[in-house]
Amino acid sequence: MQCERSGEYKPPKTRKKPKLKGTGTRKCNCPFRLKCFFDKKKKTQDWWIAMLCGVHNHEMTPKLSGHLLAGRLKAEEKQRVIDMTKSLTKPRNILTDLREKTKKVRHSSRKCIMRELNGARGKERTRRNCNT
Fold first, then answer.
1. Going residue by residue through the chain (132 aa), what tens digit of pLDDT does each one get?
2. Which residues pair with 53 in a beta bridge?
3. Which of 11, 76, 77, 105 is the residue whose CA sits 20 to 30 A from 70?
4. C-alpha–C-alpha distance, residues 6 and 96, integer Å
């Protein structure tokens, strides 16, 4: 296991040369590494973790806003998006509704953004088109 910021950015392989000017990346060659292994010889079913390098070369972010995993829609939010999409609600109204729902939850500091909403709508549209 390694830090999500380890390694270097690798642009997609395309025929055209990608325009990297003015773009950024999360990658910064962070050396943090863990090794996880399972002891097959013993019948205890235990996992072991060894720290290969415990140092990060970057500051830790205090908030998870914008993080890939923290930004995902929860199951009930996805279902609400699907239901509202089926009833032909405009995306901006769905977004407003989701934001109002997350404000009511005290411990929820994350904010839904349009990209997450469009991803959920697109997956549902693809699923519906494949089933028909």
1. 888 888 888 777 777 776 767 777 788 889 999 998 887 777 777 888 899 998 998 888 777 666 666 667 888 888 888 899 889 889 889 888 888 877 665 444 455 677 788 888 888 888 888 876
2. 33
3. 11
4. 36
Q: Is residue 116 part of a domain?
A: yes
**Cα separation values, 56 from 13, 31, 70, 85, Å:** 29, 6, 21, 43
User: 85 and 49 in one domain?
Assistant: no
Distance CA 7, CA 56 (A): 12
**Whole-prediction pTM:** 0.50
Domain that holds residue 13: 1-59
Q: Sign of the C-alpha dihedral, residues 49, 51, 54, 56?
A: negative
Same domain, 10 and 37: yes
Tell me, yes or no, whether 68 lies in a domain: no
8 inside domain: yes
